[in-house]
Design a protein that fits this description.
Layout: H1 2-7, H2 13-59, H3 61-64, H4 81-90, H5 112-125, H6 134-137, H7 144-154, H8 156-159, E1 166-167, E2 173-174, H9 182-191, H10 206-220, H11 237-268
Antiparallel strand pairs: 1-2
Helix pairs in contact: 2-5, 4-5, 4-9, 7-10
Length: about 270
């Protein structure tokens, strides 16, 4: 009887074994599963970079060098970051059609997937600004009034107070911002393309950029109507007033000449 009672298992033994088994299973999963996922992500990123390198070799290396180091025909791309590539290629400015004082916006020739591959390759050459997420550039709920003040203080000197663009020196110009996507406006502020200064988050916060985007969408949206009628490209009251004076004076002079001619003819008759 004593031997039988000694061999009898404790009532909680099965539960303890089950808990140990679950703990071992969880430990093994935690040890191996994340590593597999990380390895898969690394492999996918490597493939993306390889595809981007192939695209770069065909469409970009002739100007920017085989390793992105730059040439006399194009600047170095080391450290410009993925955001610069997404902006330049995503707006059709790159690849450049021909050399000039400034590279204009044109039809995009790459798909978004190819742009992402190019951006991944350029980002691998040196750290730089990353492509912003929708949460970063979505202006919903942003302060339009604050954005207007920021835009007038930092951007209107070149882009005009309504973002209609303007001429610069030596054949350069600030482009019209009408119809430009929120993402590309954010990337332009982040990277400073061509003649534009860059505004990193240390200089202009993410919220500041959102406010500016909200302002531009407010003044150039599809439902925006000029309260004064024809806005002449929103060039401002001086130019619009000058046009009115020149046109009005021209009409008055023409009427005066016509009246004088009629009066002289009447006297002769």
């Amino acid at each position: 009887m004593k031997k039988l009672s000694a061999r009898r298992r404790h009532p909680l033994a099965a539960l303890v074994v089950l808990l140990l088994a679950l703990a071992c299973t969880g430990g093994l999963y935690a040890a191996f599963a994340p590593a597999d996922k990380a390895q898969a992500d690394e492999t996918a990123q490597s493939l993306t970079i390889d595809e981007g390198k192939k695209l770069y070799s065909v469409g970009c290396a002739s100007c920017h060098g085989t390793g992105g180091q730059g040439t006399t025909d194009g600047p170095s791309l080391v450290g410009v970051g993925a955001a610069a590539v997404d902006f330049q290629v995503g707006t059709g400015r790159m690849p450049a059609q021909q050399p000039g004082a400034q590279v204009p916006k044109k039809k995009v020739i790459y798909s978004q997937a190819e742009i992402d591959q190019l951006a991944a390759y350029i980002a691998s050459l040196g750290a730089g600004p990353e492509v912003p997420t929708e949460n970063e550039y979505n202006p919903e709920g942003a302060d339009i009034a604050e954005g207007g003040e920021l835009f007038r203080n930092n951007c209107a000197q070149c882009h005009n107070f309504a973002g209609k663009g303007g001429a610069l020196t030596n054949g350069k110009y600030a482009p019209d911002l009408t119809g430009v996507s929120e993402k590309h406006i954010y990337e332009a502020m982040l990277t400073g393309p061509q003649n534009m200064p860059s505004f990193p988050d240390q200089t202009m916060t993410e919220q500041n950029k959102k406010d500016i985007i909200a302002y531009l969408k407010a003044v150039n949206g599809d439902e925006t109507v000029s309260p004064g009628g024809l806005d002449l490209g929103a060039l401002g009251p001086v130019s619009e007033g000058l046009f009115s004076w020149v046109f009005g004076l021209g009409v008055l002079i023409a009427v005066a000449v016509w009246v004088a001619a009629r009066t002289a003819k009447a006297k002769k008759s």
